Amino acid sequence: MNHALPLPPALLPAATCTLVACVPNTEKRPTPGPTAPLYDFSGMGKIAQDAEFVREIKQLFVVRVPEQLAQLHTTIEQEDWAEVAQLAHSLRATLGNLRIEPSARLLQQLDGLARHAPDKPRMLAVQQLVTHMAAAVVRQFQQELAQSQ
User: In what residue span(s) does the HPt domain sit (predicted)?
Assistant: First the structure.
């Protein structure tokens, strides 16, 4: 079962981030058309067809991911690079399992920065971008959970 949803043009990244820099996108946003999925449970195999399992994952995501992203922000501010790397790695796995891209790739870059080349301003920019994109998934999950009651 594929629960993929399109990513609205308004949620396209406001910046392009790499291990070297985060550069604001100044180009005009593309006109609406086919877009990438917001999330996708299909990578979880047959268990993704279990409605109760999917519901539990959505509920956990809505509660835990915003808390983890807030904690990530705090640890970046505190320059606790080992904890930043651990949180980024954990969040990357969570978002990656749901195929939430490009957030998972950004978290992988954040993990690498924390381990090898900490740059607080760059890391905060990446964290903000991931938080913004994850918030869209949280809103979608909240709507879907409310509709399924």
Answer: 50-149
